[in-house]
Amino acid sequence: AEAGGELEVVEEDLTPAELAAFHAALESEEVGRMVQPWVPWWTLEAARDVRLGPRGLSLIEDVSESEPSSSRPQPGLPPPPSQPLLPLSALTKNPPSPLLPCILPQLLYAYCYTLRRHNGEPDVDALGAGETLLMLWPGTKDPPPPSPVHALRQTLADAVGSGRGGAPHAFFVAVVGDAVQLLRLGRSAVLLALVDAARMASRARSAAEDLEDDAAPERMRQGRKAFVRQLAAVEKKLVFFLAWANELDDGTLESLGDGLALFLEEETANIQAQNEARQRPPATPVPVITEL
């Protein structure tokens, strides 16, 4: 298939023999050596320095080139919002729900997981990235979580249960660390993540809307309209969360991240204990001596 002037190959384009050869290359790590590892933007030094204005836009200061401002858009980071964020009071007259701090880590987990699953390039497969994002997106019909830790534990369980790509459990736990790190970076980094997730959903929705029924992947031919509606709901939800998160201070988000860090340490310790148990040599059976 051809998209955006570039040749795009999906599994349906391969013969059974070609598909088997591809999976064999994956298992032998031959493909992995050809793919450059992606560095998550929230691990960059620029992510620690970025500062957005009160309405979520970049702060542009008149400084000399020899003294670059940390407020300017930084290479490797997602672009900030292109329009001023709405105040929360323009979206609702009700006070913010106490569940919002529970849901925010789930949104960040879904975003980070999607980027990691697509090696930081969700645009290469916008539809697939949209499916990945929706897979972990918290639904309105889900029972309200009693705490942020309970919420993130459920999202982690959903990710592990999805069985996508046969990733090890440590991979899913590492994404918990991504969400924690974003929260600890504070308001500006959280806004960049949320607006990037909104763009990701928008591109996936546009790609689905532009598909002809006969050109749509087989998995999407029956549910394409529902897929578009779900992505539109994601975009709408993110408009609300952007407005809400924009009115939080760095300390509030850092405290939320610190609380979830304890959960991360617990999960990491469990993985380490399991690895150590697997590496232990099996116990030697004690011979049984019977009298004749």
From TrEMBL:
Region annotation Disordered: where it falls in the sequence: 62-90, 273-292
Highest taxon in the source lineage: Eukaryota
Record InterPro entries: ZNHIT2
Compositionally biased residues, Pro residues: 75-84
Name under which the protein is recorded: Shq1 protein domain-containing protein
Taxonomic classification: Eukaryota, Viridiplantae, Chlorophyta, core chlorophytes, Trebouxiophyceae
